[in-house]
Amino acid sequence: MTLGMSKRKISLILLIETFIIGLISLGVGLLLGIVVSQITSIFIANLFEADMTQFTFNISKSAIIKTIIYFGIIYFIVMIFNTIIVNKNKLINLLQASKRGENIKIKKPLVCIILFILSVVLLGTAYYLVTGGVNKLMEHDVSILLIPISMGVLGTVLFFYSLSGMILKILTKMPNLYYSKLNSFVFKQINSKINTMIVSISVICLMLFVTFCLLSSALTVKNYFNDSINKYAPVDLEMVGYYSDTIKDIDIMDFINSDKEIKDNTKDYTVIDIYKDMEFTYDKSLGEYYEIVRKKYPYIEYDNTVAIITLSDYKKIAKTYHFDAIDLKEGEYAIVSNYEPQLYQETINRNSIITIYGTDLKPYNKITDGFLTISANPTNLGFFVVGDNIVDIDQKDATMLVCNYSTNEKEVLKHIEQKLHDYVTPYSVMKDTKVEIKEASVGLSAIVTFIGLYLGIIFLISSSAILALKSLSDCIDDKNKYKVLRQIGADEKEINKALFKQTLLFFMMPLSLAIIHTLVGLEFCKFILSSIGVNDILNGSIMTFIF
Known about the structure:
Distance between the termini: 48 Å
Oligomer: single chain
Order of helices and strands: HHHHHHHHHEHHEHHEHEHEEEEHEHHHH
Largest sheet: 5 strands, mixed
Radius of gyration: 33 Å
Mean pLDDT: 84
Helix content: 55-70%
């Protein structure tokens, strides 16, 4: 501009510079993205011990096109703003820019105090709605969640806005802290940063909060699904054949004996019978407690009959599944359930008498943790164990076979799974294998975990990058300030300490409030995840915090 070049040509130079930098970064970013996306796919698959034999290198053309379009739109807007800024600047202002002091707008203390109180009220109300008031909140449509979310967002923005006007006022009232070494310089720097990027810091705080909740939940879900498969599917193969009016005899071992390779590669057979009493449904099994349970859990089909097995059969399945032993006395029944919450706890507490096959029975002293059919989750509402002499053999509902494979060879396992899929019987049969359960579970948990990890890591990188770029760009602008510090006698050690404190406080500002948000948010996450049986989110939270 000093040499006489027009603003139009300067804007054109800036436009070309920005375009070239954008083109290079886009090209490098796309190449890295293609490579890293493949590595990420393998990493996620390994997290769940998924079968990688079908993995192929894949490039999404639509993802590349969308990236170019969105990146182009963002860069186009940036170039327009750059052009406007250059055209607005006067030569005299540019020449004297390094000598000009920062124009800090002083906020009215009373306004800041009022806004601070308002922000605390908004955040406190939002916190309560998703913790103590969550049950009432979830009685409504899911869109009701927009209320605490909006309150949290507005409260966060008002908190940082009010803090930027109060922080120096508060600190100057503590002279021992404020005037110690270079603290006054550090605090003014931090106050200046917050003043100029209130919205950015608020957004970063919220992004960090979302990162904590997403990553904690994703890692928890991943650990839960991996552990639950081994816990709730302890055998490799399960078959349940159902009786009907026409089918009175079932040979459940027929599948094992139908193929030599299957017979040679299976072991640990356990066969039990499952009974039902047409008069004994879930509502009857709950006794006097039924009405209370129905109001709390209205989605359960209470008119379904309850599974019943004999004590001798329970002992067989308990040995296979490694359940606790049950020692029934004459005239007692036991409940086996792994469903959370326990529907039958009050039934046990109240010593409720129930009637099975016309016989009145009193409860065993506790609910035994367990299940009949294998699955990926604790879904067993409850089945009843009674003495062998109680059941009516004419009301046999099903016969169940469970066993393990005696080989790990993939081809043999594939053969068994295929034969099982093609197996046809004259009776209705339910077939489940640990392999199928694992594959179905991996599909769901991988989607949840991938989205959580992806968004969490992206938000974390974005937050850190924005804060880091702001710090680095401010270092260029603040060169003269540090020069003055040296001139008035501050040594390098003190200057380095001041810079460290400044950076630490700058990063901790959004992080501190984000951690408070997270402590509340994780309680809500626990409430949501409890619906699939997840009750412990601590390990995932610790891993996220370290990360």
